[in-house]
Amino acid sequence: MTRRPLLNTIILVPVVILALLASAASKAAPPCLPVGLQCEHLVNPIGLDAPAPRFTWRLVDVRKGAKQTAYHLLVGTDSLAVARGTGAGWQSGKLASDAQLVTYAGKSLQPFTRYFWRVEVWDKDGKPSTSAIAYFETGMLNSRNWQGAWISDRNDVDLKPAPYFRRTFKTTKAIKSARAYVAAGGLYELYLNGQKVGNHRLDPMYTRFDRRTLYVTYDVTSQLLAGSNAIGVLLGNGWYNHQSTAVWDFHKAPWRARPTFCLDLRITYADGSVELVSSGKGWKTSLSPIVFNSIYTAEHYDARMEQPGWNTASFSDSTWKDVIYRASPSPTIVAQAMHPIRNVEAIPARSITKINDTVFVYDLGRTIAGVSQFSVSGPAGTTFRLKHAERLYPNGRVDQSNIDAHFRPVGTSDPFQTDLFILGGKGVETFMPHFNYKGFQYVEVTTSRPMELTRDALTGYFMHSDVPVVGQVTSANLTLNKIWAATNSSYLSNLFGYPTDCPQREKNGWTGDAHIASETGLYSFDGITVYEKWLADHRDEQQPNGVLPSIIPTGGWGYEWGNGPDWTSTITIIPWNVYLFYGDTKILADNYDNMKRYVDHITELSPSGLTTWGLGDWVPVKSKTPVEFTSSVYYFTDVSIVAKVAALLGKPADAARYVALAAKIRNAFNARYLNRQSGGYGSGLQTELSAALHWGLVPDDRKSQVAATLARRVIADNNHIDVGLLGTKTILNALSDNGQSDLAYAVASQETFPSWGWWIRNGATTLYENWPIDATSDISMNHIMFGEIGAWYYKALGGLKPDPTQPGFKNVLLEPHFVTGLDHFEASHDGPYGTISSAWNRSGKAVHYRVTIPPNSTATLKLPGEPATHKLEAGTYQFDIR
Ligand code: BGC
């Protein structure tokens, strides 16, 4: 073993364990293997509409310096030909390239077709190895391929009960495969022969329905029967027919109508023939036991109205009505190619408290977004009211006053976050809302007659977009670990096919909250599919002049309030962050024109280079930075991103124009706010100083001076934050990126007011909307907006950052900070090339630092106190720093 001193105090020790692992693995498998094949960032997806799908893979290769020197990708409809490496429809040819993201460039894909693909790679020594076969399947590809008609019942928007639809059909031959394609205005559940199809929840995702409606594809081969079959559809309102009333006028959405759907069930028989069962006049409809459903408030279910077997072939639908044709909600019906919403985690009630003979309060022990499932038995007509809340009054009853503030009910028939369940009187009956979710920890159940309820009658389900976990953080500081967990819970509680602010009071796609939390999300979760979809929502909502609404999607609210650059910079910041994390330029290309239109509009409004358009540093601790300051910072940030994207997309004239504009804004900003003598900005608030540093407005020759001013400000604030939403993005980063990591950690690890730790000390399991736990307004208990701290752990303590010049962690910028007061920290992130990990332990005066760089990527390591950087190739390294 060689020991190579890097500096007097640093000893590099090659890792022995790794060498052992490598030799053990080499007996079983080739030293380099392409794995983790994905198409459109999904594993073996079906029902894709992308004309040029993207392929990605990773390498398993534990050798030091592992890399890919060439690849050859094959795509074709004949799996055997693809496996043999011959006869494929498209072959990239062997290309001397280290790319692990390749876009299809063969001839036009056919609809309803399964394509197989594989990739052969050549390793660092030029040795080839071949992946297993993966597949993707196309869907409609073109709206003209739909055969079904859009249908509904004859009721109007005000009718409350949700409709059922059904029809029967016969299969005549042996079935090879079957796919159901379902598009809906509203929400739907699909059933075949009595069984719900798939485990998705709340399909399809919320979009601006009159511009773009999503459809979902299911493989239903195993649910079809030989002979008689029945297909059933249950439609919910979702955001399409919003009946509840709240300040954002959801109920006035221009697209609002009675829910409708279009369906093609495509059966391919063993003999190759295809039969379609489609929505149309052959269908029948009836009202379901869901007597009320609102995505925003709750669901009411009357089991006495159940029609057992409604979705089976033997059911008699003679009393059911005929359906009617409806116009398609929008001209664009496209595939929902993303991770679905699911009931991801079951959470048994931790306790039940009996308040009196008819009132019981369940406690899940933690705050979530989702639903509760309730199972009981009793006489027909017994009614249960399940009122969901995040906190309790001192008397033990649930308190909704922190979350119902913006609800504007008309009458009493739609109580907030309160399900109604009426028993049918047929033994044990189970209820779980189909078309609603809530934010809650407690459920107060009120029964219509005295009875005993048990703890196990209620289970909570944490629902969210089921994005794979791609990051881990753990440390010796238990409060830090809990803040990280709470950040993840709030991030996921606010991910339902679009990012939201909170899962209870609003469920709004607040733009500002989402761009601030996007790095936190991307470090820990595989969010690209959700963000790509949400950026398409942005394109649908953008005015021709570039203006975006502050909440996206929207039924119309938000074009007039809250939509300055500090919020709607989502249009630049989110594509840029997705690019940094995935190295995928598609989201940049798709949104480039929209970004440009957005910044050009600000330029039109603000010829001086400064803008006052925006909300400013929302929910600050005590000091509020002027709006012109923060909005101009975001204007500068947007223009800088557009300049970089223009250069990347090969538009040098645009790039030059936006570089010049960015310089103009920066000069105007510094002329107005920078005090060159003192190294201060504005009136020297934490947000002012840190935003100028973090977003790159400080002239190079003033950086250390401004950082010192910031440090003095924070020390004067007793090492506590004094920021709002925009400042939470910058305060910790500006400190740790400018030589003040110990101070940043001191602020981040506070457990007294105001701090993240203060919430945790007071029992928080999610992040809050306000710093004082007893604030009287803006006090949702599950807001992601203050969640940047989750990303900061990775960036500053783990030191893992994407390199903008080699995005997707092709090169990792590694700069860990072994901060005072913390003896152990580790972070890992599964990037496009594999798992990057960074872990350190302090023992006495020494720090042992261990880092793994995945195959086909590199790192630039900067260790504390060392002026030089180290270039690392793939492998695991250990540094002993004394
Ligand atoms: C939301 C915030 C949002 C803000 C904008 C609030 O009601 O909950 O998270 O960003 O409004 O003003």
From TrEMBL:
Q: Which UniProt keywords apply?
A: Hydrolase, Signal
Q: Which residues form the Alpha-L-rhamnosidase C-terminal domain?
A: 799-871
Q: Which superkingdom heads the taxonomic lineage of this protein's source?
A: Bacteria
Q: Which InterPro entries match?
A: 6-hairpin_glycosidase_sf, 6hp_glycosidase-like_sf, Alpha_rhamnosid, Bac_rhamnosid6H, Bac_rhamnosid_C, Bac_rhamnosid_N, Galactose-bd-like_sf, Ig-like_fold
Keyword Hydrolase tagged? yes
Q: Name one Pfam family in it.
A: Bac_rhamnosid_C
Record flagged with keyword Transmembrane helix:
no
Q: Which residues form the signal peptide?
A: 1-28
Sequence ranges assigned to domain Bacterial alpha-L-rhamnosidase N-terminal in this UniProt record: 173-345
Q: Coiled-coil region(s) at which residues?
A: none
What EC number(s) would the UniProt record show?
3.2.1.40
This one is known as: alpha-L-rhamnosidase
Tell me the organism.
Fibrella forsythiae
